[in-house]
Automatic annotation (TrEMBL):
This is Glutamate-1-semialdehyde 2,1-aminomutase. The keyword Transport does not apply. Keywords: Membrane, Pyridoxal phosphate, Transmembrane, Transmembrane helix. It comes from Cladocopium goreaui. One of its GO terms (molecular function) is pyridoxal phosphate binding.
Amino acid sequence: MSKLGMEEHTTFFLKFLGVLFFLMTFGQVGQLAYCWLMTGGLLWLALTSGLGFSHDDSVAVLAAVFGLRAIPFIGKRLMTLAATYPLALTFRFASKILPKYTIDEAQFFSCDGCSDEVAARRKASLQELSEKWKKKYPKCQEFSLELKKMISDLRFTSARCFPAFNGVVQKYLDPSMALDRTEGVDVVDIDENSAMDISGSYGVNVCGYEKYKEFIEEGWTTAKKQGLFLGSLDKTVLDNIARLRKISGQPEVSFHMSGTEAVMCAVRVARFNTQKPLVVTFGGAYHGWWDGMQPVAGNERLPSDVLCLKDMSNLSLKVIEARSSEIAAVLVNPLQCFHLNQSPPSDPVLSSNNRKVGPTPGYKEWLHRLRDTCKQGGIPLIFDEVYTGFRLHPRGAQGAYDVKADIVCYGKTLGGGLPIGVVCGPTDLMARGDAKKAARVNYVIGTFAGHPFVMASMNAFLKWLELPETIKSYDVMHANIDNFIKTANAKFQEKDYPIQLTNWFSVWSILYTKPGRYHWLFQYFLKDAGVSLSWVGTGRLLFSLEWKKEDYDRLLERLLSACEQMQKGGWWEEPKANIKAKLGVEIGTAVFKNVLGLTG
Ligand SMILES: *[C@@H]1O[C@H](CO)[C@@H](O)[C@H](O)[C@H]1NC(C)=O
């Protein structure tokens, strides 16, 4: 019957295959898979040899046992899938398919189907701006040209528009700035041009640039005796800890060098001390550049131990409840409230008028429900307050929304102008060692943690934060901002400019009320009008406590002057073609060319 006559060796070969499978998949297949295989094997042995079942009956019993066991498991997985932020599922495929493409100069000015007259006006406007900038920013442009050869980060951040337009825009305009100094709410570049700063230095500038000069000065006065010395804590550190305990409402404090590191620490201590694998985040939230906490865009090693769920969704709460035995922590960045489940509102993703940002009603109630769900499931709630701590309120989002987190991460402005990351939490969650097992250690440390100069400038910041006039200044700022937003929006409407401002505390953004392919250009005209933005452009803007009524008025004048330039240049002419359809065709063609290998 058998050609090779191997009947009596079948068992040997089956075992051989089993061992090979184990060796070749070890470390790549989860331990759970081996456990299931092993359990299946043992059950099989017990049924066939021990209980004398026939092979066919044993298969049926095994199928029934595993089927029953799988029901709750599959139920939870399906629920998770339904609650998952959609981009977290599709991004890894989209990022492989979406090609780069360039709109060349012949199409650049008329890619919304405009008339020749409008295209000519646009071209003249861009040329005029380009010529003007050559005269206005000669030193800045030379500086940036040199620097770009050597700093990849700068090449990345100097691309400030919808990527397809980059090629042409970079030929005409370079928005890079080399800064000489800050002067109140203004920054002055090396060509001596002054601009009002609404970039907020990536969120650090809460107090106003002049304040940081004071903090740093004061810090240096205290710290210069020590200079570099690391590894010994002094009275300043103790004082900082006492103040941070009060602000965070948590007994333990851990110092790090950046907000990203603070998040790394918080997630690690939560996983270590709960001995559970998963961390929940909410779609669209940013938690620093560590790839362990970037479940969607921005990195190649998409983490498999992060559940990225939909924000403000009751289903997400159900998933957290059902899978509480696997979840080490729920991580929240309250800034998420401003662009709920949207991609970061930067100009490079602005392809039409597709920016939806603004404060979300009901966010406070959601945070409280999330707080309750975490408490019931025994899951630590981590607030990533790197951005929001001290910006929303002297006690951050915890203060602004009256909700208490278990672990709080701070960064940015807390260092009084120097780099810092801080984690505050309860003793049991902050432990770096296992009370019962000598070799289980959570190695979370940092060379520069507790640097005397940083500690001293932080101390200056924390002392300032407690002053009664500081606390009052937050209310004054929020009233000024509300007033500014109202006045500005009324003005834009009156002038029929297609923009609208929206804010959430001192974070604000520019919305476009009509479709258009050139809205991203607004940031270039803003720069020209003397307004300094960060590389994400008009999507995320910031005010500081330093801004006075006169400053807001001065800013509005500049916004209006930039609007006038946009209007005059024909950039806001009503599109003649359907932009979404055009985009679809452009991207579809590029994908097609890419698949055929027609582009590089
Ligand atoms: C979510 O649950 C809360 C409280 O149980 C309820 O008030 C709210 O209406 C629910 N939201 C939706 C969208 O079903």
